[in-house]
Amino acid sequence: MSPLKVALIGLGTVGSGVAKLLLEQPNRIARRAGRPIEIVRVVVRDLTKPREFTLPEGILTDRVQSIVEDDGIDVALQLIGGIEPAREMMFALLESGKDVVTANKALLCEHGHELFSRARELGRSISFEAAVGGGIPIVAAVGQSMTANQLTAIEAILNGTSNFILTEMLASGRSYDDVLTQTQELGYAEDDPSLDVDGTDTAQKLVILVDLAFGTKVPLSSFSIQGIDTLELADLLYADELGYTVKLLGVVKLIERWLEMHVRPTLVRHERPLAKVDGAFNMIALDGDAVGRTWYSGSGAGQMPTASAIVADLIDVAVGRAALTFPRLNIWREQPSLPVLPADEIANRYYLRFNVEDRPHVLADIADILGRNDISIASVIQHEAAASQHGIGAGDKTARSIVPLVIMTHRTTAGRLKIAETQLDKLSTLRPPRISMPVAE
Amino acid sequence: MSPLKVALIGLGTVGSGVAKLLLEQPNRIARRAGRPIEIVRVVVRDLTKPREFTLPEGILTDRVQSIVEDDGIDVALQLIGGIEPAREMMFALLESGKDVVTANKALLCEHGHELFSRARELGRSISFEAAVGGGIPIVAAVGQSMTANQLTAIEAILNGTSNFILTEMLASGRSYDDVLTQTQELGYAEDDPSLDVDGTDTAQKLVILVDLAFGTKVPLSSFSIQGIDTLELADLLYADELGYTVKLLGVVKLIERWLEMHVRPTLVRHERPLAKVDGAFNMIALDGDAVGRTWYSGSGAGQMPTASAIVADLIDVAVGRAALTFPRLNIWREQPSLPVLPADEIANRYYLRFNVEDRPHVLADIADILGRNDISIASVIQHEAAASQHGIGAGDKTARSIVPLVIMTHRTTAGRLKIAETQLDKLSTLRPPRISMPVAE
Fold first, then answer.
1. Any idea which fold B138-297 has?
2. Beta bridge mates, A436
3. B395: left (phi over 0), alpha (psi -120 to 50) or beta
């Protein structure tokens, strides 16, 4: 059978991994694809930059247009990040008759709707297994394997950097800033890690999964997103003491005809599988009405795990599966969407931490405000000398008089909690920061 | 688009689950499949048996031949177990031009080769997601999502009954027999649970996965299979004390050009994901040379999880994916097979438990025999009064003089251990049973 001709756009970490797989394992890949897969063009920004492997003579170019114009190319691997020029490039590639494989989650989250519509009109496919969960085949699971089910919930750890930082903080007893610096030195975090640690990356991936699972396009602005960048070591330690691990969790639940949806640091009971995902690994738990709960875990990022997903997508294009699957993905279609449950109506148990002056009536004042807002208290931790034990207020002159107070509430809504918090913030005995985290059901 | 016409053969637990999904969710399934899926025939043994749901008028029959002869039927869901008449029936269905979806692992393990060859010759497909891991899409993961990788290892908990029993024994401190009886009363174990608890069921599923992952047909007789039916509560407790959970693990490793392969109760370190799979859940861990390790978990059996996998297969047939995927599955092909590493050459650390007379020199004698066979000891547990603590010898008149001795070895081969065990069995101070279990790396 004639080879499938592929252009690689972008030769960064992931692009290099894909090139290595295709160049070093041509027989394996041809066997699985039923035909040879040949890289005929590689687009880079800088033609002179030294590479860690040898590309076939004459295939490097710095002109994307040369791919667009080449009718001999079947598939474009679009491996550059960000919105522009990636978006325009993708339209041009589709218009020129190419199937596209991409890992660009930001682009799909933002412009998936128009890209998918156009691809369908043109009879082309967009494959994007690598955009969510790296090497974990979660797009295939949701888009193909779970098709007999109505999915009813997704709970997921989708950002390896955040999970690595949380794991390290707890294991080493160090602060967020310390661990972040080390993570950057190890190369696990970007120089600007903000999209990873502030929850945006998790939210973008969740938007893609939600569209696959529920056929609903949810804008990032329509649900609560909070990262791990406001957490202190103390919170991880108190949660641990209470029997929970703190994870940056993306959560979607189908509640009647509403989607409850949020990305937040969340307390997960120690014995649950999601609590046990350590380091840079990801995990996605799916609830289906027939299958019950299934879990998928593995490396959510990194050169070769991501390359594994991209090459699997490429093989799907070669075999012809992508052309069958893509039009049937219930994704980014014009259809009545499920509305997102207003953030204030989301009900959860909550972990609350306050820094309070160590004097009479403080707990009574807090309990009174919570009670007046119908929030009942499930448990309280207030240790003697806890301030120094968990590192709070260390070095602070007033440390002796400020103590942490941790309260676990029964189920309440985010709206009620918000009102209570506004009232609490008026208490002169409370010092910032005030932390609240939901508890996973 | 015209409906896909389906015949259901077998209306037991799983067949009823499939019928329910297809009859209760026609719109959902038509949307995912791109066309309606219609049950036109249901074959049962007893036409008069009361059913828990209403089938469309006139579709029940007790004659499989009526399916074979009906050219209007596109797909047969072959949901009866055992080898015959399932095997003959499957050939007849394929010959009559039908695609087949099945959950029959015993049949595929035993006769997959001839069935798959014939299906390929006839241009038909056999889909079997439900045969391994129930609702977990592990066949799709190995056969499609991991195609960029050379898989290098599979470690799997594939029998829910065994895992439920092991979990319950440890949680409740009860004996194997007690828990088995309760499990049968709950309906989680068959009246004759022997294929579940003796490791055969796990081994059959592993044979199917090995063929998918390594293109090698391994007969059940060519690798070691041991079940949980010889384990005592004491072993679970000692393992726990040493930091391990005992799991019935199916293990395959690619070691150069050899396959190491076995099914045995195995010690798994507490912190590893496989150790944390409780109750009737299954988990499969796959190592790929690009992706690293990925994990898949969920319900490995049960009516609706299995039905979920079967209906997903059916949708794959409807969409046309099965016709593309099946010929490319590197399974049951005529090709040079990877040889199975002789059992004696498999290297592991081992957990050994002996019941010994409580008198001088016993440990020295055992250590001497192990040492002469080049097996070095990593750790020893011998508690005072341990006999009653872990329930060994309770009620036995000689209980006071027999104590358990637990030894963890460093890495050695099964062959060396076997020789040592022959010599150990000659010691007059040892009483049966003598237990040995490998430790997962």
1. Dihydrodipicolinate Reductase; domain 2 (3.30.360)
2. A352
3. left
SS3 A76: strand
Of B21, B141, B294, nearest to A290 by CB-CB distance is B21
Query: Any idea which residues of B carry the catalytic annotation?
Result: 205
Instruction: Provide the pLDDT for residue B436.
Output: 94
| B384-391 average pLDDT score | 51
Please give the CATH architecture assigned to the domain spanning A343-439: 2-Layer Sandwich (3.30)
Nearest CA in chain B to A20: B290
Residues of chain B in contact with residue A320, where contact means CB-CB under 8 angstroms, are: 324
Is the domain defined by A4-134+305-328 classed in CATH 3.10.129.10?
no
CB atoms inside a 10 Å sphere around CB A179: 21
Nearest-CA distance from A401 to chain B in Å? 39
Across the interface, of B29, B288, B324, the residue whose CB is closest to A320 is B324
- Cβ contact A32–B147 (<8 Å): yes
Q: Where in chain B is the domain with CATH 3.30.360.10?
A: 138-297
Closest residue on chain B to A322 (Cα): B321
Whole-model pTM? 0.94
**Nearest Cα residue in chain A from B139:** A145
The DSSP result for A77-131, as a single string, is EE---SSTTHHHHHHHHHHTT-EEEE--HHHHHHHHHHHHHHHHHHT--EE-GGG
Over residues A216-247, the pLDDT tens digits come to 889 999 999 999 998 999 999 999 999 999 99
Between chain A and chain B, the number of residue pairs with CB atoms below 8 A apart is 181
Take residue B123 and report the two structure tokens written for it: 């241009």
Chain A residues within 8 A of B324 when measuring between CB atoms: 319-321, 324
Whether A354 contacts A155, CB under 8 Å: no
Q: Where in chain A is the domain with CATH 3.30.360.10?
A: 138-298
Average pLDDT, chain A: 92
Indicate if the pLDDT at residue A440 is higher than 90. yes
Question: Which DSSP state fits A347?
Answer: E
Section A264-276 average pLDDT:
95
Question: Which residues of chain A are in CATH 3.40.50.720 domains?
Answer: 4-134+305-328
What per-residue confidence (pLDDT) applies to A350?
97
Instruction: Quote the pLDDT of residue B393.
Output: 46
Supply the pLDDT for residue A387. 45
Task: Answer whether B147 sits within 8 Å of A296, measured CB to CB.
Answer: no
Q: What's the Cα-to-Cα distance from A250 to each of A150, A202, A440, B31, B336, rounded to whole Å?
A: 19, 7, 11, 27, 46
Q: Quick check: B148 and A315 CB within 8 A?
A: yes
- Fold of the domain built from segment(s) B344-439: Alpha-Beta Plaits (3.30.70)
CA–CA gap between residue A203 and residue B386 (Å, rounded): 53
Q: Among A98, A105, A205, A247, which one carries the catalytic annotation?
A: A205
Distance to chain A for B120, nearest Cα, Å: 15
What ipTM was estimated for this complex? 0.93
User: Over the stretch A364-376, which tens digit does the pLDDT of each residue have?
Assistant: 999 999 999 999 9
Superfamily of domain A138-298: Dihydrodipicolinate Reductase; domain 2 (3.30.360.10)
Question: Quick check: A148 and B21 CB within 8 A?
Answer: yes
C-alpha distances (whole Å) from B188 to each of B161, B200, B302 are 6, 17, 9
Question: pLDDT tens for residues A71-97?
Answer: 999 999 999 999 999 999 999 999 999
Q: Given an 8 Å threshold on Cβ–Cβ distance, is A28 in contact with B150? A: yes
Q: Outline which parts of chain B fall under CATH 3.30.70.260.
A: 344-439
**Catalytic annotation present for A105:** no
CA distance B29 to chain A (A): 6
Distance from CA of B111 to the nearest CA of A (A): 24
Query: Which residue has tokens 């319950």?
Result: B168
Choose the closest CB to B140 out of A129, A145, A298. A145
pLDDT at B52 over 90: no
- pLDDT beyond 90 at B399: no
pLDDT at residue number A393: 46
How far apart are the C-alpha atoms of B151 and B287, rounded to whole Å? 6
Position B233 scores a pLDDT of 95
Beta-carbon separation of B324 and A319 below 8 A: yes
B389 pLDDT exceeds 80? no
Q: Where in chain A is the domain with CATH 3.30.70.260?
A: 343-439
Return the minimum-mean-pLDDT range out of A13-17, A182-186, B312-316, B321-325: A182-186
